[in-house]
Structures are given as structure tokens and as C-alpha cells.
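Now for one specimen:
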Amino acid sequence: MTETHTTGTRPARPAVVPRTRSRLLPPLLGVVALLVVWQTATWLFAVPAWMLPSPSRIVVEAVAVAPDLGDDLLATTWLTVLGFAIGAVLGLLVAALLHLVDPLKQAVYPLLIVSQNVPTIALAPLLVIWFGFGLTPKIVVIVLVCFFPVAVAAMDGLRAADPVALDYLRMSGADRGQVFRLLEVPGSLPTVFSGLKIAATYAVMGAVVAEWVGSDRGLGHYMLLQKSAFRADRMFVSIAVIIALSLLLFGLIALLERRLTRWRPRRER
């Protein structure tokens, strides 16, 4: 009797594993189908490996060069994390400042939009001329690509505060700082994390571009060397590592989002 009562009062747990499996299965099947078509095409048309290696050849090469990629992977990871952190913090601070000071927003926001029309790959050589081949130009490149999505997402989130809650706080006598701290900042978190996830993927791309332009280590430098040697298989290995690093950063940001936005309904996370 006791066991039956306990089972009946315990709330039903959501089927997390089947739901996760159903979400992951379609993209995994798509990747497998792409690899099968790729492998078949390279074998059927006898495509030279220096032009387009088969997936199986890339896997074999990945196992062979894995011990040599460690230092370059660590260099790119450190550069990515450092640049992303600086860009994200800078984007959040600027977004808060522009949100609180409306005349400043009207003056600066159009310049932010215009600045995004300048391709980063065109700025990178100029940064090398201005700052040399050290760490600074690489960090600046990553900060530039991370800053904008975080700043714009944060400004949109701060502006989209719940109007009913806003009226309630104002009627309760809350000042501007209290409205910002108690309503606008918590309400903007979902949008802010959307910007952070986009910036995390951009950060890896920015690090590789920076290393490509001027560096003596890192995945970008490694890819440049392999391009000169016509080692397309090793370039694909580098691309796979870059994708894995981007997905890892994206996943960490998504995990942090889930922990900090538990107040949201599950279907909105």
C-alpha cells in the first residue's frame, strides 16, 4: 500500500532522453548521408586526394596528425576564449550605457551599424601594421567580431522589458536604477545569451582569421602551412577541429543559459 501511495503522489518526470534523442537524430542522419555521398563521389569519380580527399582518408590523417595539433589547438583556444571574454564584456557594458543614456545611443548606434559593413579580413592586415605580430592585433580582431552581436542583442533585450511589470515598478516608486536592475537586466538574459552564442562561434572564426594573417602558431597558421603543401586532407582535419571547438563553446554558453534562466518556462529555453 505504501509503495503504491508513494508512486501515485510522485510527479511524472519528463522523458528527457527520448526527447533529446529525437532532436539529435535528424541532424545526425543528415551528416551521415552527406558523408556517404561524399565518400561515394570521391571513389566514383576518382577525385585526387590533394583536391578533395575522401572522409575516410581525412579520418586516417586526423589520427596521424592528432599529436602534432595539440599546441596549435591550445593556442587557438586560448586566443578565442580571451578575445571572446573581452568582446562580450565590452559589448554588455556598451549596451547598458547606450540603453541608459538615450542621446548617446542616438549618436553612437548608427556608427555601430556602419562599422559592421567593414569586413574583418580587410581590417586584419591593418591591425598587424598598427600593432605588430604580437597578441594585440589578434585579440582586437576577435573583440571586433564578438562585440556587435552581444551589444545589439543586449540592447534589444533591455528595451523589451515587460510593460506591465514596468508600470507596476514605476507606480511602486522604483527609480531608474531599480527598474534597470530588477526588471530590464533579468528580462534581457534570454536575448543576451542568444547574442553570446552567436559571438562564441564568431570568436573561433576571428581567431583563425587573425592567425592566418600573422602568427607563428595556432590552427590558422597550421592551415596556412598545409595549404602551401597542398595537403587538403590536413586542412579538412583543421576545419573539423575548428567546428568541434565552435560547438563546444556554443554548448557551454547554452548550458550556462539553462542554469541562469531557470525561471523561464521549459518550452521557451
